[in-house]
């Protein structure tokens, strides 16, 4: 099981939620959550978005890479930006023909997401793609 899968399970267990209760809050299927928690599947974008909406104390940075943030750094999730970043990261990984582990991919997504929050989304995606390729 990857660290990211473990952190998803940890969030659920810390809140004393059954898989069924968690799935209703996060709006994902119980079968998908079970596969994620058992390391048989990668978490879907829906899990990240659902968790960010349902659990305001869970930062995207911690969820993706396990790095804590202070309360004033925990910005609300920008769903549109996250979707765009995931698309760019996956495209860049395909271009360099890298098969990244779930944790490596999560770290790349987190880094690119934070870059976009700090610097703004580049009009030309090639800068962001080059960044991902450089660290992949």
From TrEMBL:
UniProt cross-references to SUPFAM superfamilies, sorted A to Z: lambda repressor-like DNA-binding domains
Keyword DNA-binding attributed: yes
Domain HTH cro/C1-type, chain residue ranges per copy: 8-63
Entry keywords, A to Z: DNA-binding
InterPro entries: Cro/C1-type_HTH (IPR001387), Lambda_DNA-bd_dom_sf (IPR010982)
Pfam families, sorted: HTH_3 (PF01381)
Source species, domain of life: Bacteria
Gene3D superfamilies to which the protein is assigned, alphabetical: lambda repressor-like DNA-binding domains (1.10.260.40)
Coiled-coil stretches noted in the UniProt entry, renumbered to this chain: none
Annotated protein name in UniProt: Helix-turn-helix transcriptional regulator
């Amino acid at each position: 099981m990857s660290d990211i899968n473990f952190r998803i399970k940890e969030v659920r267990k810390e809140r004393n939620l059954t898989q069924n209760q968690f799935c209703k809050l996060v709006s994902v299927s119980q079968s998908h959550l079970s596969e994620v928690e058992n390391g048989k599947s990668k978490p879907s974008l829906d899990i990240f978005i659902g968790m960010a909406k349902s659990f305001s104390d869970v930062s995207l940075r911690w969820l993706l890479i396990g790095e804590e943030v202070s309360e004033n750094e925990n910005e609300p999730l920008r769903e549109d930006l996250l979707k765009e970043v995931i698309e760019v990261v996956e495209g860049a990984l395909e271009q360099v023909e890298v098969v990244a582990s779930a944790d490596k991919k999560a770290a790349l997504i987190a880094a690119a997401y934070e870059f976009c929050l700090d610097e703004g989304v580049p009009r030309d995606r090639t800068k962001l793609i080059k960044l991902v390729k450089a660290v992949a």
